[in-house]
Amino acid sequence: MRDLCLLKAKEENFLEIVHIKAFGHQLTWVDLASSSSSSSLTTIHRLAVYYLGNLEFLQTLDLRRWSISSLRIPNVLWRSKQLRHLYLPSRIKLAGTNKLRLDSLNKLETLEYFDTEYCDVRCLSKLTNLQKFSGEVAPKDLAVMLKSPILNNSNCLLQYSSFWISGDFETKEQSLLRQLLGCHHLRQLSLWGYLNLVDKLPDKFPPNLTYLHMGNTELEEDPMPTLEKLPNLRSLILDWNSYIGKEMVCSSAPTTPSNSSRCFPQLKSLMLESIQNLEEWKVEQGAMSCLFRLVIIVDCPKLKEIPNGLRFITTLRELQIQRVSEALRDRHREGGEDFYKVHHVPSIIIP
């Protein structure tokens, strides 16, 4: 059925899928000769650009030598007045020294894999019909992006945005991070780099956030008291040196007539990776009551045991403890002294 739908979409000039592939030390488009004519390309609604091959090999190429014209991209695509959905090639720096501008695509409703390294960030202010946006952004580019009326909370048209922010934050950029966290349309956020916070995470996170990935942020204060308040967070990844403290606590909010909130009320998946200074992790009874999957992986050398509170999480169905100390793994294998904490979990992976 999927193949039939794609075939019909192409026949009606509704969809165009183009591919990039490396031949030797050059990049070129695949099957460009069989693509639709230039005149028909101006009527397409959805364009997807994919790279076929090994991305690690791609990074070894000097892509600055190739511009849009040398890759033989049909320039008419960027002038299409009907284009509604655009999927750019992730991590492929197509534009060389001249950043790609998308100003003319003012009917775009979906823009995915936008990257400020090779796309002109100023063009966002022209895309007044955007409903869904995802992109990779350097901290220094946030100032320009957040000035765009497209990303303002008053814009009711934009329903979904996803940001991967890579790079260290300077002190002067802290207000930009707080402004971004105030965007109600923000659904997914990855922060990779030193946040340079004076105390702890900002108290206010977007209430609709469903996915959060932090790495190398070097937080000194336990982030859990802030993150556990997010009502819609479903997936949390604390990656390499995201937190450099010794203790982490997932608390259980008291259930009273005046306070019926729960901590991490929607969290389904939690991953801890390379939290090198963590010595003690506490999970109080009632916390993370919907947790389905827990992964503890790689280089948590000071963590000797997993929380006793896990035995109260009846929804937990998958536990992975990989590439950590042998002592930690032995305690939680069947027959180990702490196996009682996780014996109710159907799938336990401790190689």
Could you describe the 3D structure shown?
This protein has helices spanning 2-11, 38-41, 55-58, 142-147, 174-181, 224-227, 326-332, and strands spanning 15-23, 26-30, 46-52, 85-87, 110-115, 132-137, 160-166, 186-192, 211-215, 235-238, 247-250, 269-273, 280-283, 293-297, 318-322, 347-349. With 351 residues, it is of the alpha/beta class. The protein has a domain at 222-351. The strands form 2 sheets. A 14-stranded mixed β-sheet has the order 2-1-3-4-5-6-7-8-9-10-12-14-15-16, covered by helices on one side. A two-stranded parallel sheet has the order 11-13. β9, α6 and β10 form a beta-alpha-beta unit. The longest helix is centred in the first third of the chain and has 10 residues, at 2-11. The chain is globular, with a radius of gyration of 23 Å. This is Disease resistance RPP8-like protein 4.
